[in-house]
Specification:
The protein folds into two domains: about 1-225, Spore Coat Polysaccharide Biosynthesis Protein SpsA, Chain A; about 230-269, no CATH class. It is built from eleven helices and nine strands. The protein has helices spanning about 20-25, 55-65, 80-85, 100-110, 130-135, 155-170, 185-190, 200-210, 225-230, 235-250, 255-265; strands spanning about 1-5, 40-45, 70-75, 90-95, 115, 120-125, 140-150, 180-185, 215-225. It is globular.
Length: about 270
């Protein structure tokens, strides 16, 4: 079900530079360039029972990505998340509770030439949407991601920020909390996020390289530490590292899901 959000902030559609060449560029294996006045950025935010975070998330997006279209894709929340989001987004969609399906649904209804996928529990830095457009001015770039910084000063979080960044670079692994973005043409060509129960974002990140270069933006996205604090930062960091390494080695998704369920569930008192 699709409904425009009542009272939502309007967005402006801006034409792609060299738009007439977009199709030819893609079929030649080169991503179409985006000009100084970029194509509209559509931000897709999948949510489920995020009443505590949704207003602060969307307010942050409005402040630091002015002019972007915001598409919230709800997975059937029962805590009032859609009601809280309605006046702060441009489109509010309801679909099944499955992150890949939610992101693909959001992409289908979005109007932008650039798709930016964000988790609800992150804060984006100022001027980041301009930096996305600047990077996509290079016709060789298919998409990219941001560095992250967990907003706490504990050593374990600095370890996650830096060591995990370079490990991920070596293994060609980036997850959704890095704020993956890409050209719509690339997204459509790749068929969107795969319908898998785990690491659909990593699969898509790796596939993006088939569409062109994948760039990294040094400005830091700030993801929430709520899951680290709930599970335990050392335990969760270890679990993520094990799962990422086994994924890179080609271990089956069934095994990865089993490990995730065992290692990444909330601790019981």
């Amino acid at each position: 079900m699709t409904s425009p959000a009542s009272g939502s902030v309007s967005f402006q559609r801006v034409a792609l530079k060299h738009a007439s060449d977009a199709s030819q560029c893609w079929h030649a294996g080169i991503a179409a360039p985006i000009g100084a006045q970029a194509g509209l950025i559509s931000i897709i935010v999948p949510v489920f029972n995020e009443a505590a975070l949704i207003k602060s998330c969307l307010t942050n997006l409005r402040q630091h990505a002015p002019g972007a279209e915001i598409v919230v894709v709800d997975g059937g929340s029962t805590d009032g998340t859609p009601r809280l989001a309605a006046d702060l987004c441009d489109q509010l969609i309801t679909t099944v509770c499955h992150r890949a399906a939610q992101m693909n649904t959001g992409a289908r209804v979005a109007h932008g030439d650039v798709l930016w996928f964000l988790h609800v529990d992150v804060e984006i830095p100022p001027q980041c949407s301009r930096e996305i457009i600047r990077r996509l001015n290079d016709p060789r770039v298919a998409g990219g991601y941001f560095r992250i910084r967990l907003p706490r000063d504990r050593f374990i979080y600095r370890l996650v920020d830096d060591v995990a960044h370079y490990t991920g670079w070596l293994l060609r692994i980036r997850c959704g909390d890095h704020g993956l973005f890409c050209r719509r043409a690339v997204f459509d060509k790749l068929g969107g996020f795969p319908d898998v129960p785990l690491m659909e974002d990593v699969d898509f990140f790796r596939a993006m390289h088939r569409g062109g270069r994948v760039c990294v933006i040094a400005d830091r996205i700030l993801p929430s530490v709520r899951r680290y604090e709930s599970i335990g930062p050392a335990r969760l960091t270890f679990a993520y590292g094990v799962i990422a390494g086994l994924y890179a080695l080609g271990v089956s998704r069934r095994v990865l899901c089993s490990l995730y369920d065992r290692l990444c569930n909330r601790r019981r008192n």
